[in-house]
Amino acid sequence: xxxxxxxxxxxxxxxxxxxxxxxxxxxxxxxxxxxxxxxxxxxxxxxxxxxxxxxxxxxxxxxxxxxxxxxxxxxxxxxxxxxxxxxxxxxxxxxxxxxxxxxxxxxxxxxxxxxxxxxxxxxxxxxxxxxxxxxxxxxxxxxxxxxxxxxxxxxxxxxxxxxxxxxxxxxxxxxxxxxxxxxxxxxxxxxxxxxxxxxxxxxxxxxxxxxxxx
Length: 214
Fold this sequence. Notes:
By secondary structure, the protein is of the alpha/beta class. Helices cover 36% and strands 18% of the residues.
């Protein structure tokens, strides 16, 4: 059965690049659980591929990277968050980039690398990074979010659907080695965004488990 939003191949070709998705894997390192009371300390965004409705194109490498370290926006922080990411918050209070500048630069970098297609945010899981980045873009970038209010792809949901398992069993630590990245999860934003981009490509290209019958 065809869905109402599906288009014919001729219609897709007429739409051109604007009908394509361009994916960006993002990782944020923060000093707490939610934006506003707490702050993004570092953000990395990596070009992660494209899809025109027929063919997914995996990047040949992951050298298209945006990375910034940001000045905290409040005095609140959780020590356990800093223990995980290893960032020097005191240094960033002095040397970190202003969020207004960082998010504006991120907006322009994403649109430049999208090349006229629609940017889509990718994360594993999506909920944490999307919450932070959407809030920061709306709050600090006068152009708003390059991902609009909903252009996003949750790798965890894709794993659950393709593997036919509950979301609660679709975590990164449970991935089969054929789908995971060979990179270490270091909690440095660049490393983790690239690791995530590789997992995303593996999952996107994976046919998944055959549907059960009977």
